[in-house]
Amino acid sequence: xxxxxxxxxxxxxGTLSKIIAEKYGFVIFETGSELRKLSSxxxxxxxxxxxxxxxxxxxxxxxxxxxxxxxxxHLPNGKAVLFDxxxxxxxxxxxFDALMERNGRKFTGILINVxxxxxxxxxxxxxxxxxxxxxxxxxxxxxxCEKCGGKLVTRSDDNPESIKTRIAxxxxxxxxxxxxxxxxxxxxxxxxxxxxxxxAKEILEVVAKILS
Length: 212
Ligand SMILES: [Zn+2]
Prior knowledge:
alpha/beta, Rossmann fold, 8 strands
């Protein structure tokens, strides 16, 4: 059983996906990191992706699906996948469902639910290391990175306006996908508006239930 994780930015999705993957041995699929991985390869798909990225255009859905299919074909035997941030919109969900069916894979979606106010507070108060880019939450009070000693700075793309734009895009484009999966009994919702340790405990229980 694969997992599809949904949540707005600031929901804790990135952190929770790593915790789930570590505990249950999922392989994480996240489009951005797959694109970066592909850029170091020399295959037909990698060359196609590289030329799109270099042109500054958005990677079209059909190429994203090719990337997922390629990822599936290189997946170690018996490994389940945790999809982080995909499918993002309805059009993508339809091709994603077809791809999963073609590959004989079943999935359950989990929505990490947090109010916009919580997401905004988390995102505008977190900082990242200037040097190694590690992200630190608001409750980390030191001024230097614990990994490399680098200086911690506020992320420039984390201003309230751009965060609100991204949340609005999620509500408009991704919520219909979540509603569709709810109707198909493929969705579970969990409360992400709690400290990360408590949220982690809850989401691990949710995953355990899905896998049982
Ligand atoms: Zn650092």
